[in-house]
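hey can u run this one w/ adenosine-5'-diphosphate bound, need the structure tokens asap thx
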Amino acid sequence: MATNITWHPNLTHNERKELTKQSGVTIWLTGLSASGKSTIACALEQYLLKNGVSAYRLDGDNIRFGLNKDLGFTEADRNENIRRISEVSKLFADSTAVAITSFISPYKADRDSARKLHEESNLPFVEVYVDVPLEIAEQRDPKGLYKKARQGIIKDFTGISAPYEAPEKPEIHLHTDKTTVEESANIIVEYLKSKKYI
Ligand code: ADP
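ok here u go:
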């Protein structure tokens, strides 16, 4: 390693890309609870890291309990939750990492704002609709949340007592009742390769 440090006041995104040999992108997974977002995000993140691509997953566990622990599930709080996640994922993408966000993100306007934020900075934004029929999500119910929502213990639960606005033109539309976790992750990988993002 050279001992004399030379530096620019600021690196452009393209200079950053040349140095890291990567291009940043945000993969925005949206869908009902238990549709498979986190599971697919984990598989995708591991595939990318194992293949030398810097990737990081943003999900409820590392965002809802940290940066956004002051927010609940009212519409205003959900908007603010997604706004902050959009800004953070944009920073990851700007750093040339692959940011993988896994949040229900039920409102179209919020997802469109996330897309706009990326587009304004010329950063690619890949919306992935992780689609599954509500009945199947409810059968899976890995955390027992649907049961609690049906009992009225959890209020404002997406699909039960709060709306989910399905994406109209997602870059990728997965049907997780028909594809395995590996197949879903692979569909995303193939898309990223086709666009030369990885
Ligand atoms: P979300 O993040 O969308 O709330 P999770 O990934 O936490 O969903 O939970 C989805 C559950 O469904 C997991 O327990 C997962 O193992 C299960 N599952 C069963 N089949 C599939 C599939 N084909 N794709 C994704 N998840 C599946």
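Residues 31, 33-40, 102, 140, 142, 176, 179-181, 184 surround adenosine-5'-diphosphate (CB under 6 Å). anyway lmk if its weird
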